[in-house]
């Protein structure tokens, strides 16, 4: 079994063990709040583009809340891709209850088929998506395939530099110096963990194996360029969107980023 299949099992287990309040209020919040699941930094860039009547694909869509929220801005259609069977089912359930024209598809991102070739005006990648695949070049090849010529990709992710800091609970974490650099920026070995997905479950548990990978800024931007995705904007922020680096937030350390890219052709 490869790491992708193991990650699928681990994510499905995490969602199965999600806390009672993890996504129980998605319907209510989407009905009563304008943008509860889109951060201001991402919204700032999205508002530069016309969304009404357009289509958007989200790659690694989790329970669908971000794409469903973006649909409220005027999209004609949204399609989300995720590897976890139960999260895809939940996302489709939310879309049906809301009456939104959003469809969620169970898929290994690297295996999205040619039926989605040049189908989308926009693409969306949000926090935590890039870390689960070792080969970001293969990832962006698929993303570029799905976008129409001239299509725009929005990425709102953890800044690669954040990988240099240890997390509370890791062996190399120093509580006296949380700002100390603990990992190489060019870390080659993956992180392997069996202590669950705390943000989703609100508890630690012995989980299936999660395997994740660090990618440098150069690796990400170059992989995009190699696949015809031209970076037209890169903004960096010292705001923590992972909830993992709270002690570092607001101290001038890049913790998150927004990349806007356009497909050439």
Layout: helices, strands, pairs:
Blueprint: H1 3-16, H2 26-32, H3 40-46, E1 55-59, H4 65-71, E2 77-82, H5 85-98, E3 102-106, E4 120-125, H6 136-146, E5 147-158, E6 191-193, H7 198-201, E7 210-212, H8 217-226, E8 229-237, E9 256-263
Parallel strand pairs: 1-2, 1-4, 2-3, 4-5
Antiparallel strand pairs: 5-9, 6-7, 8-9
Strand content: 15-25%
SSE run: HHHEHEHEEHEEHEHEE
Helix segment tally: 8
Q: Pairing-aware structural class of the strands and helices?
A: alpha/beta
Can you tell me the residue ranges where pLDDT is under 50 for at least 5 consecutive residues? Answer: none
Largest sheet: 7 strands, mixed
Rounded to an integer in angstroms, the radius of gyration calculated over CA atoms is 18 Å
How helix-rich are the residues, as a percent range? 25-40%
Number of strands: 9
- Give the CA-based shape: globular
């Amino acid at each position: 079994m490869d790491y992708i299949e193991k990650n699928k099992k681990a994510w499905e287990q995490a969602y199965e063990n999600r806390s009672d309040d993890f996504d129980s209020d998605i319907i209510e919040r989407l009905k009563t709040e304008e943008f509860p699941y889109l951060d201001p930094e991402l919204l700032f860039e999205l508002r530069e583009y016309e969304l009404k009547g357009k289509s958007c694909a989200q790659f690694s869509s989790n329970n669908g809340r971000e794409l469903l929220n973006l649909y409220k801005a005027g999209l004609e259609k949204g399609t989300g891709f995720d590897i976890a069977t139960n999260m895809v089912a939940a996302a489709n359930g939310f879309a049906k209850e809301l009456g939104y024209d959003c469809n969620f598809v169970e898929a290994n991102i690297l295996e999205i088929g040619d039926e989605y070739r040049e189908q989308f005006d926009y693409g969306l990648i949000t926090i935590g998506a890039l870390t689960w695949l070792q080969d970001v070049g293969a990832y962006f090849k698929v993303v570029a395939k799905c976008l129409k010529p001239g299509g725009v990709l929005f990425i709102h992710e953890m800044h690669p530099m954040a990988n240099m800091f240890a997390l509370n609970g890791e062996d190399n974490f120093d509580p006296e110096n949380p700002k100390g650099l603990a990992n190489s920026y060019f870390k080659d070995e993956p992180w392997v963990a069996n202590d669950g997905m705390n943000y989703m479950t609100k508890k630690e548990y012995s989980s299936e194996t999660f395997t994740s990978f660090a990618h440098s800024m150069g690796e990400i931007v170059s992989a995009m360029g190699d696949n015809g995705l031209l970076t037209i904007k890169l903004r960096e922020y010292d705001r923590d969107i992972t909830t993992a680096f709270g002690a570092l937030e607001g101290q001038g350390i890049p913790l998150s980023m927004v990349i806007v890219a356009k497909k050439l052709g």
